[in-house]
From TrEMBL:
It comes from Peteryoungia ipomoeae. It comes from the Bacteria. This is Rrf2 family transcriptional regulator. InterPro entries: Tscrpt_reg_Rrf2, WH-like_DNA-bd_sf, WH_DNA-bd_sf. One of its GO terms (molecular function) is DNA-binding transcription factor activity. Coiled coil: none annotated. GO terms for cellular component: cytosol.
């Protein structure tokens, strides 16, 4: 099963939008994400419907934030993307009448549900401004000449 990177990608886009003074076109965002502008417009539509971004057509148009980064949580973005699958763990269905398989599937599903609830409750506490602050701190460290863990100059 292939992973879904829409949440990560849209968080990336929204933080960039929060840093820009001018609108970003779908083409600019598509280039950043290495995708098609149609995909960007389709994905951003859910964020626009929820009031997190707005778009203007024509010369000088593009996407801008409608709310501040401190007003948007990870949970907000996750829900605007129609709640993509968080885990790719799937139950076996090779032997639907096997009581062992049923017990295993039930245990796995219970654990997955608990993990998802915990993750979503954490998403609700994280604001995009928290991520942007993390970026600012990393940038500051680089500007001061400090090496960041995992960063190869």
């Amino acid at each position: 099963m292939r992973g879904d990177s829409r949440l990560s990608r849209m968080l990336h886009v929204l933080i960039h939008l929060g840093r820009r003074k001018q609108a970003a076109t779908s083409e600019m965002i598509a280039k950043m994400l290495n995708t098609n502008p149609v995909v960007v417009r389709r994905t951003m539509a859910g964020l626009r419907e929820r009031g997190y971004v707005q778009s203007e057509k024509g010369h000088g148009g593009g996407w801008t934030l409608s709310k501040g980064l401190n007003e948007i949580t990870l949970l907000d973005v996750y829900e605007a993307l129609e709640r993509p699958e968080l885990f790719c763990l799937v139950s076996a269905s090779d032997h639907p009448g096997c009581l062992v398989e049923l017990a295993v599937n039930e245990a796995l599903e219970d654990a997955r549900r608990d993990a998802e609830a915990l993750l979503l409750s954490r998403f609700a506490t994280l604001r995009l401004s928290d991520i942007a602050t993390n970026f600012d701190n990393r940038l500051s460290m680089l500007n001061l000449g400090h090496d960041l863990p995992g960063f190869d100059a």
